[in-house]
Amino acid sequence: MKYGIAIFPSKKIQDEANSYRKRYDPHYPLIPPHITIKEAFEADDPMIEELIPELKRVANETKAFTIRINKVSSFVPVTNTIYLKVEPTPELTALYEKLHTGKFPQNERYAFVPHITIGQRLLDDEYSDILGQLKMKSFQFEEVVDRFQLLYQLENGSWTVYESFVFGKELV
Fold first, then answer.
1. Residue 27 among the catalytic residues
2. Residue of 21, 34, 38, 98 marked catalytic
3. What pLDDT, on the 0 to 100 scale, is given for residue 170?
4. Which one of 49, 96, 143, 163 is most buried, counting C-beta atoms within 10 A?
């Protein structure tokens, strides 16, 4: 089964992202707006049971931190993906690094660029038009993040939460 790890922002940020995603992101019905912390990886039940204590440990060692979104950006020329740029912070980078060491699958395909996708798989002309419009728009979001989620993929391709891990809690 496929698993992944993400942070879900507040409803306010999700609503803003979804106002674009429903038109420009074919993954809109499959997963809410999120910040991917660990790309999808294959795991069986015993592996997940082994990873859950590690996820609890990482969450316990992590303090809540602030994320900021001030603009849109894109992954061109690699892909015509447009996203809300989450400003990198030492805390966010440290969380990412902890989830890519030790028992965790080493499945990094790209450098870590914290973001919330709002459009992807766009045709060149459509991409240029949409990005041009969004670059003129002001995005100002700031909020505290205090948890991440382990997700799994259902047979229909959608993702759902397996378990949430709150920062700074005692190990269970």
1. no
2. 34
3. 58
4. 96
Q: Which range of residues forms the domain containing residue 90?
A: 2-165
Q: Domain for residue 172, yes or no?
A: no
> Is residue 170 in a domain?
no
Quick check: is 100 catalytic?
no
Total count of domains within the chain: 1
Per-residue pLDDT for 172 more than 60? no
For the stretch 101-159, pLDDT in tens is 999 988 888 889 999 999 999 999 999 999 999 999 999 999 999 999 999 999 999 99
Give the whole-angstrom CA distance, residue 86 versus residue 147. 16
Residues 6+ apart with CB under 8 A from 68: 86, 87, 141, 142
Q: Cα(149)–Cα(139) distance, rounded to whole angstroms?
A: 25
For 83, counting Cβ atoms within 10 Å of its Cβ (0-12 exposed, 13-18 middle, 19+ buried), the class is buried
Q: Which phi and psi (to 5°) does residue 128 adopt?
A: -60, -40
- Whether 87 contacts 69, CB under 8 Å: yes
Instruction: Pick the catalytic residue from 35, 59, 115, 118.
Output: 115
- For 13-70, write each residue's pLDDT tens digit: 999 999 999 999 999 999 999 999 999 999 999 999 999 999 999 999 999 999 999 9
State the DSSP code for 97. Answer: H
Q: Which two tokens stand for residue 71?
A: 């603009």
